Amino acid sequence: MATTVAFTVNGRSVNVAVAYEDTPLLAVLRNELRLMGTRFGCGLEQCGCCTVLIDGKPEKSCMRPLSAVAGRNVVTVEGLGTPDRPHPLQQAFLEEQAGQCGYCLSGILISAKALLDRNPSPTRAEIARALDDNLCRCGTHNRIMRAIEKAAMRMRAGVRA
Amino acid sequence: MTAPLPGILADNPQLDRWVVFMTPGKVAISTGRVEFGQGVLTAMAQLAAEELDVAVERVAIRSGDTDGAPNEGYTAGSQSMQAGGIALRQACAEAKALFLARAASALGCPAAELTVRDGRVLRNGMPTAHDYWSLAAAVSLATDATGAAARKAAADYTIVGSNAPRLDLPAKIFGQPIFIHDMVLDGMAHARVVRQPNRGATLASIDEAALRRIARSPVEFVREGNFLAIVGDDETAVEAAASAASDHVIWRGAEPPRALQQEAAWLLQRPSVDRVIGAPQPQSPPRGRQVFEATYSRPHLAHASIGPSCGLALYRDGHLTVWTHCQGVYPLRAALSRTLGLDPQRISVRHVQGPGCYGHNGADDAATDAAIIALRRPGRPVRVRWRRQEEFAHEPVAPAMVVKVRAVLDEAGNPADWTAEIWSGTHQGRPGGGANLLAAEALPNPPPVPAPTDVPESAGGGATRNAEPLYDIPQKRIIHHLVPEVPRRTSSLRGLGAMPNIFALECAMDELAERAGRDPVEYRLARLADPRGRRVIERAADMANWRPEAPRGTGRGKGLGFAQYKNRAAYAAVIVEVEVEESVRLLRAWCAADAGLVVNPDALINQLEGGIIQSASWVLKEQVRFDNDAAGPIDWDSYPVLRFSEVPEIDVQLVDAGTDVPLGAGEATAGPAAAAIGNAASRALGIRIRDLPLTRERIMAELLRQ
């Protein structure tokens, strides 16, 4: 059924009209709101490329019906920071050159943000566990974990986006 | 003095194909090499900036475009720096020489008095009124390279060898729309292809009404022979119909591969095209000599790119434009021309970044899908995005390989005669070799499928890559059995045959060392004259604190693997420490590599480390299985890869060889890492497992058997 769903994306209130309320959130983000940072990887909730924050929790968006985010607060990678005002995670990823093809990075940055929000001082093992739902095929894992440690250290010292 | 031109520059000699000074303050560089996360464009910008003496920020790069960028074939085989980089470097040196000659005549002084600093011409170190951009109108680069211009001496390099930040990374870290999947063209339609379940399957019937009901929004069907696509404005509707297609489309002759065919040993029973490379086969079996024989194998592997393949196409005013993340825009154009019956002059192919591919995956095929659909819908751009299931089931896979090593030992127990006997499907399924595009086989009157060949040894070899030991062994030969009929389309995956061959060769070296009661490091060094090879092995052993007396079978162990990629590119030695109970856990890894002249050390280390991790995933987890009644895996559950918690810390060091010749390195660590894990697992377990992957099931079965 054609319907309108109201929710918040990156601090902005949106009303999205879709033909069917079970349209996946990922399709709405990419095709309706043109927020292309959240990537399509598998459509099966297996790879983590499409991870976004919903009310602060990391969730896959590829199978989540739009109706499930009505009235909720969604944050995508575009909501973390910008080249002019990078989030400490993004700044650390740039400094550590933590990426190869980069297709997985949006989801990983979001998972990392959720981790640091609930645990400001994660160990390396805790970081790895928090990212186990995010696949990286290029083998950039260690740089990514180093960057997250670096960002965590700065955020503990009070650095913000 | 005129030096011979680098091969690719000789093929594309006109300088303005490589470098143009059109926009004030900017240098426009073109390269046929394309970015897929390996950092190649940053390295190219560094090479150009160095040779031209401009800041790297001034360099803007055009890459992979049949409407202008040089034709460099494929971005593959760790050839970008070794071949493409030196061509660009020479083109820039030639351009700079022409500018300095022009400035010298304007200033009435010898060119030898002139230098360039960030694009400005200096005379005896003092500023002049000239720079590249003020001189550009008077200097024609529509002229061919001659080889006369001297390149900068490596000792004077300031940009090459520095860790310039990757140009492609910021967009990826800020989630910008830079991937082909993010491209939106005005009036664009979305499409999915309903694939033949298997090669040769014919489309019997389709229940369009049912699929339209499932789509809910309007969709159209494009059908050409056995090629079927669903097209519409609403991507979600198209996706829904495509997901349901298997229930509403009936195929005939759809026989999936059999589970038996997923084992590499299946190859041994198949007809093959055989040849011998190297020393002639001995006429009679050696008398009184000890013979070591062991057979190693690796199954089919998927590229398993993190994002599925995607292609865009627009057919307008008789011209077809295709956007693709494939590795070679010119070869794809040629293949599209043959498949679609269009003159190549009426096709433009442009590269757009995609997810990492690690070889020939579905990218060319997705572009072809889009082109076929676009031709039937003139004026309307179309984007095809493969589904995850489609990528796993239909991309070309790396062929399974069996490698039998036979070493005849001399009286002292040293290998005197070495044979590597290899069974493999082709590693050369790229579209450049024939039509060889997935959708082409589905079209009416499909072009004949070319008889498979393999990559020739002159290009580094396919199944034979790295089969010849670099070690000093008096007689060496390779017996290559190319198996033409295999259960899946096979093609190139990072390193081609190098990984299975180095796994076999380097595991065999450990087995020989063990028989001789010698330490694996010492045993290798005793028969390796090449000083660069020796140096990386010694460095890696140092880094890992290698101890010759380490016991076997304690559940924990270190192993070494070494190779010079293709026996002519970068050298790498990898040591891995593992712990094995029921499955293998990676504890640490160390790597020493010599890649000759290194343009960007940090980017290279990223590649070397990535190669180790990807190889670890292949070795411990990966196999394209056919035991699920499908043409292969369908998702990340049926094709698991290494996860964050399973990745060891890795220490990589570059060994400086003091040379200005770069050696291809992007694929250099995968083989050594595979062998290192195999050898470490053997040391930890006290038994040798020669078939990959080293899964828990395999280890348990081997332990029970012994």
Question: Which helices and strands occur, and which strands form pairs?
Answer:
The complex is a heterodimer of chains A (161) and B (706).
Chain A: E1 3-9, E2 12-18, H1 25-32, E3 51-54, E4 57-60, E5 73-75, H2 88-96, H3 105-118, H4 124-130, H5 141-156
Parallel strand pairs in A: 1-5
Antiparallel strand pairs in A: 1-2, 3-4, 3-5
Helix pairs in contact in A: 2-5
Chain B: H1 7-11, E1 19-20, E2 27-31, H2 40-52, E3 59-63, H3 80-107, E4 114-117, E5 120-123, E6 126-131, H4 132-135, H5 169-173, E7 189-194, E8 202-206, H6 208-215, E9 220-224, E10 227-232, H7 235-248, E11 249-252, E12 273-278, E13 291-298, E14 310-316, E15 319-324, H8 329-340, E16 347-351, H9 363-375, E17 382-385, H10 388-394, E18 401-409, E19 415-424, E20 475-482, H11 498-515, H12 520-525, H13 531-543, E21 556-564, E22 571-580, E23 584-594, H14 601-621, E24 649-654, H15 670-685, H16 696-705
Parallel strand pairs in B: 2-3, 7-17, 15-16, 19-20, 23-24
Antiparallel strand pairs in B: 1-2, 4-5, 5-6, 7-10, 8-11, 9-10, 12-20, 13-18, 14-15, 14-17, 18-19, 21-22, 22-23
Tell me what the structure shows.
The complex is a heterodimer of chains A (161) and B (706). Chain A is built from 5 helices and 5 strands, in the order ββαβββαααα. With 161 residues, chain A is an alpha+beta fold. Chain A has 2 domains: 77 residues, Roll (Ubiquitin-like (UB roll)), CATH 3.10.20; 69 residues, DNA polymerase, domain 1 (Orthogonal Bundle). A 5-stranded mixed sheet of chain A has the order 2-1-5-3-4, sandwiched between helices. In chain A, helix 2 crosses helix 5. Chain B is of the alpha+beta class and 706 residues long. Chain B has 16 helices and 24 strands. Chain B has a 7-stranded mixed sheet with strand order 9-10-7-17-14-15-16, with helices on both faces. A 5-stranded mixed sheet of chain B has the order 12-20-19-18-13, with helices on one face. Chain B has a 4-stranded mixed sheet with strand order 21-22-23-24. The chains are: A alpha+beta (161), B alpha+beta (706). Chains A and B meet through helix 1, helix 2, helix 3, helix 4 and helix 5 of A and helix 5, helix 7 and helix 14 of B.
